[in-house]
Amino acid sequence: MSLGKRELxxxxxxxxxxxxxxxxxxxxxxxxxxWLTHTADLSAxxxxxxxxxxxxxxxxxxxxxxxxxxxxxxxxxxALNEANIDLNPADHSVRFDSEQECLxxxxxxxKKRLSQSGVQG
Length: 121
Fold this sequence. Notes:
alpha+beta, GMP Synthetase, Chain A, domain 3, 3-stranded mixed sheet, 55% helix, globular
């Protein structure tokens, strides 16, 4: 049975609230982290959810992928759990990116960048 628009909107609100808390925590803990966002088709959440963690520079992103990846996955898992979304974070659903890379390749246009698949794993 597919979910109605109202229930999908509730899921989206819960997810945004939980990811906002993860973002606040990460800003205090992870060097170079600046913000996060997500993309998803809520009617096919498990297959389409992408949580994009954005860092200031490419160097910050690469460092986080080595030193903070486990923490980022943990924060993502906590957010999904708090949003009542039964999904384990994986490499296909958690992405890393940077302001520097977006500026270089998309002129700082995040909407364009996120609509394409240029976000790093």
